[in-house]
Amino acid sequence: xxxxxxxxxxxxxxxxxxxxxxxxxxxxxxxxxxxxxxxxxxxxxxxxxxxxxxxxxxxxxxxxxxxxxxxxxxxxxxxxxxxxxxxxxxxxxxxxxxxxxxxxxxxxxxxxxxxxxxxxxxxxxxxxxxxxxxxxxxxxxxxxxxxxxxxxxxxxxxxxxxxxxxxxxxxxxxxxxxxxxxxxxxxxxxxxxxxxxxxxxxxxxxxxxxxxxxxxxxxxx
Length: 221
Ligand code: SF4
Ligand code: FES
Description:
- With about 220 residues, the chain is mainly beta.
- It has two domains: about 5-70, Alpha-Beta Plaits, CATH 3.30.70; about 85-210, no CATH class.
- The protein is built from four helices and nine strands; from the N terminus they run E-E-H-H-E-E-E-E-H-E-E-E-H.
- It has helices at about 25-30, 50-60, 135, 205-210, and strands spanning about 5-10, 15-20, 65-70, 85, 95-100, 110-120, 160-165, 170-180, 185-190.
- Strands 4, 5, 6, 7, 8 and 9 form a six-stranded mixed β-sheet that branches.
- The radius of gyration is 18 Å and the shape is globular.
- The mean pLDDT is about 95.
- Bound molecules: iron/sulfur cluster and FE2/S2 (inorganic) cluster.
- FE2/S2 (inorganic) cluster binds near residues 194, 195, 198 and 204.
């Protein structure tokens, strides 16, 4: 994965911004427009607010496009204690936690993260991450979650969550995780659809093989 990271610095904080990971959810703009303003250049001016306010705002960036380093001795970004996948209706999988993204064979960790937005419509040009292509193709899914027999809506979701975008197939999640949509389910292993075609979203049902899903098409991996 090659990411172009831009940095914006004040005396108290360094803000880093991944252009390709930003899906324009605009949390930052809504929360702190005097710092995050796409109408100005540069669009991030960390001098316009306290490091505390900027850090609080960045923690709400759902894609992980924004991160920070405090220069004033303030609290660093903590790794969330709980792993959560939130299924966005008609949109991506928002994942938070102690995350490790691996190579498609699951062998090597290529990224450690705390927040990611994962493509589940199948057409992102920045797979495995969302790039808002779901809007262009009018992807629809109501984020329904159906519990199978034996599955539980209570459990633990701590520890490391390893996410493997498998080749031409689903995301394999290994680790304790809470998956939330219309219902909540706790799993220690899950296969989540990323081709957009499963009839059992958010879970994979094998459709990717029938439709010839190519995970490398437009991928950054
Ligand atoms: S909150 Fe994150 S994803 Fe949303 S516009 Fe800001 S940088 Fe982009
Ligand atoms: S990845 Fe979509 S059905 Fe398997």
